[in-house]
Write a structure and sequence with these properties.
single chain, alpha/beta, 38 strands, 12-stranded mixed sheet, 334 residues, 9-stranded parallel sheet, 13% helix
Length: 334
């Protein structure tokens, strides 16, 4: 990639301050970028770095006004972080190798017709009844079970396992090692003290524009479906149990665990290692901090932290009080 800053500005609808003819050929972080790179400033706490960066250009917000001289040109946009993501996506599309066709050896059904621009990699196993959409890529050593349906322009990375009957939407990305549709953890205690397996007869449905990280497990429903809504993003090493219902545009950081039959609404942000109890309901637009435990229902528009999770501001106050307990005991005040 080599493009003048003024052309980038036209591409994203931005305004240049400085040398509009400087050429951009790479991306880089604010404190490490060099000549020919473009970087971004989205968090005010890193503002001091913009005055020492060696980048040729910096994406900044429309209202940013430098307080010191700058060596870098500025590209003013409404949202620097979102614009960076847009630019990087376009560059990836232009430069990333896009394989097509069926590599051998692999297993596909007899008379299987590969859609336009689709790809099935070597050592993949595609069972009978599978349907995939135009432009979908199934990379090597993946398993696609009987009657699975995958939409258009979805990427199934190497070593993914999708059990029979699951449904994957359009423009999804599923990273290596993920298992979709394994049995939910369902066992009934018997009179003898043993556990009898409850058959898991449901499926998993994943809507459009979902991204699922590496080594995620999403269990099939006992009956009905486990559902991941449109635009949701799931980090590595997350467990989604049977019959969980997740709404749209949620983000889950790594090592989160969601127990069975829990319902989570829309636009929630979930930190790492959060644990959700089963059979609870979580509303919309919540912000749940890392390592929080959610044992009960949660409404909407909450900021929670701790176990059991409480208001994040109250949690911070409680931590201050806890730090003082030892001194208060020593002084005989408790």
């Amino acid at each position: 990639m080599k493009i003048a800053l003024k052309d980038l500005a036209a591409l994203v609808g931005g305004r240049v301050e400085g040398d509009e003819n400087v050429e951009i050929e790479s991306f880089g972080p604010l404190d490490q970028a060099g000549k020919g790179s473009i970087t971004f400033l989205a968090n005010p706490k890193y503002t001091h770095l913009i005055y020492s960066t060696k980048a040729s250009a910096v994406l900044v917000s429309n209202d940013f006004k430098p307080e010191q001289p700058l060596s870098a040109a500025l590209l003013h946009v409404a949202d620097p972080y979102a614009t960076l993501a847009e630019l990087m996506t376009q560059v990836q599309r232009m430069t990333m190798h896009q394989p097509e066709g069926i590599e051998q050896p692999c297993r596909v059904p007899e008379r299987f017709e590969l859609p336009e621009k689709a790809y099935i990699g070597a050592f993949a196993y595609v069972a009978d009844g599978v349907k995939i959409g135009k432009g979908t890529k199934i990379y090597p050593q993946s398993y696609i079970g009987h009657d699975v349906e995958i939409g258009e322009d979805t990427v199934i990375n190497a070593g993914v396992r999708i059990y029979p009957g699951c449904r994957i939407g359009n423009r999804c990305i599923i990273h290596s090692g993920t298992v979709i549709g394994a049995d939910g953890f369902g066992f009934a205690p018997t009179a003898s003290g043993e556990y009898e397996k409850i058959p898991q007869l449901g499926k998993v449905r994943i809507d459009d524009d979902v991204e699922i990280g590496a080594n995620v497990t999403i269990d099939r429903a006992t009956f009905g479906e486990t559902h991941i809504g449109h635009g949701t993003k799931i980090d590595n090493l997350v467990q989604v149990a049977h019959n969980v219902q997740i709404g749209t545009n949620n983000v889950f950081a790594a090592q989160t665990g969601i127990a069975g039959s829990t319902r989570i609404g829309n636009d929630n942000m979930i930190g790492g290692q959060v644990g959700f109890a089963g059979h609870i309901t979580v509303g919309d637009r919540n912000r749940i901090g890392a390592q929080s435990g959610i044992p009960n229902n949660v409404g909407s528009d909450k900021g929670l932290l701790g176990y059991p999770a409480i208001d994040a501001r109250q949690f911070a106050k409680n931590q201050v009080y806890l730090k003082k307990l030892g001194r208060l005991f020593d002084e005989g005040k408790l």
